[in-house]
Amino acid sequence: MDVFTPSDRSFLMAKVRAKNTKPELLVRSTLHGMGFRFRLHRKDLPGKPDIVLPKYQAVIFVHGCFWHGHNCRKGSRPTSNTDFWNEKLEKNIARDNANLIALQAKGWRCLTVWECQTKDAAALSAMLHRFLTEH
Ligand SMILES: [Zn+2]
Q: How far is the CA of 2 from the centre of ligand 1 (A)?
């Protein structure tokens, strides 16, 4: 059974296309350029954080605004099939929150970088620098 209406489908396809790894690559190259060393996708940590900086006891998630429910224009939800989307996206948000709580309980500092926050290179490096140098 196909749960998607045609408008859902085109919406979804557009989002899938937009969901490449570019924001994460931007964050990585910014960190690298600032001289921070990191590891990727550590499976032994809750939520498999995208970027792990052991020296700083810090993890960074790079989240797509749509799939992780950012409160911004890119995070707006489809206007059809709303129950389906609300349930799916609320689950993602709940999972993200649970991961952050579990990581913090283990003593990790956490930062979520949203896709829309990777557009401005200067603001992105300022945010990353602040997160990693402020204790
Ligand atoms: Zn956003």
A: 29
What sections of the chain are H helices per DSSP? 6-18, 22-33, 82-105, 121-133
Parent domain of 105:
72-135
CA of 113 from ligand 1 middle (Å) equals 9
CA of 71 to the centre of ligand 1 (A): 6
The count of structural domains within the chain is: 1
Angle formed by the axes of helices 121-133 and 22-33, nearest 10°: 60
Per-residue pLDDT tens digits for 9-35: 666 655 554 444 689 999 999 999 999
The alpha carbon of 65 and the centre of ligand 1 are apart by a number of angstroms equal to: 4
Tokens of 113: 């970088």
**Per residue in 84-135, pLDDT tens?**
999 999 999 999 999 999 999 999 999 999 999 999 999 999 999 999 998 6
Q: pTM score, two decimals? A: 0.82
In-domain check, residue 132: yes
How far is the centre of ligand 1, averaged over its atoms, from the C-alpha of 53 (Å)? 23
